[in-house]
């Protein structure tokens, strides 16, 4: 991602924090607990640890250690991905601060700087690997030998990405299947069991790509849209909160850990890979919320900040984006404050997010193009 992308997303986050530090009167939506709250879990996604030359995908060692200290001194419950999914499927009540820790890319820095700490603190974790990275024998990635060692831990879960850590939404069906099957084969050859979990590189997928993965027999697949997972989450695109240097301070970690689900349905546009500028978004919020509560709903779009929205009596939300969004990667984050007892910094938020991709360069002036 280029500098202006980080700046635009940072402005969204700052707005959220400003809302979080407003008066108790402004946080008037006293939203009672719903079923989704009891089965919810916040899933964090890390990529590199302590590789300061890659700030867009890295989190510093100091930041990661601060997250572990927050967990060990707070009332968190770190769950493995398999255990969390099993509990959600059974609609079992999860701990109040249930979280899961995942890593994408198979980077050596995770092996060196994160896994030893997690093992020492008995915290489960999941790693998603693109097998071509591992086969490359490049020293910045884990080796198969190291992954075999990791796989022996009862705290670890290892899943796959496509063989190449690359965008596949623009590829044909044959190439997507080739990449996925190659990754599954190499995983099976080296680790001697089947990969059960899949993560989309950069969190990017279209409907065709998603349909192929859905038919591939994975237990669950993961994206990078910022939302809270709960019992009726789409098991084919489970949400995760990405942690990077710009958004990796312990305050943000704590903010996200307090997030609760904002159940929605009927989201438009249907496909997250766009064919034209993003001008309109709509969805319907669960009918467990009333119109008075939804007066406090706020939505933010990267590059636009807070966007105007309207909510009708049937909880249908319409967002008109003016001017239309033309950035390559656009994150929508919608939050609803929950009044709770305690200090303002401990307020909870219902959180729903989506990630849009506009890959067609003809819609994008040069100064608005953004990289991952």
Descriptive key words:
five-stranded mixed sheet; 372 residues; six-stranded parallel sheet; alpha/beta; single chain; Immunoglobulin-like; TIM Barrel; disordered N terminus; 2 domains; disordered C terminus
Please tell me about this protein's structure:
- The chain has 372 residues and is α/β, with parallel strands linked by helices.
- The chain has two domains: 36-261, Glycoside hydrolase/deacetylase (TIM Barrel, Alpha-Beta Barrel); 264-368, Immunoglobulin-like, CATH 2.60.40.
- It contains twelve helices and 19 strands.
- The protein has helices spanning 3-20, 35-38, 61-73, 81-89, 108-113, 115-120, 131-135, 144-151, 173-191, 207-214, 250-257, 291-294, and strands at 42-46, 48-49, 58-59, 77-78, 98-104, 125-129, 156-160, 197-199, 220-222, 241-242, 259-261, 264-268, 278-285, 298-301, 305-307, 309-311, 316-325, 329-338, 348-357.
- Strands 1, 4, 5, 6, 7 and 10 form a six-stranded parallel beta sheet that branches.
- β16 and β17 form a beta hairpin.
- The protein is globular, with a radius of gyration of 20 Å.
- The chain starts with a helix and ends in a 15-residue tail after the last strand.
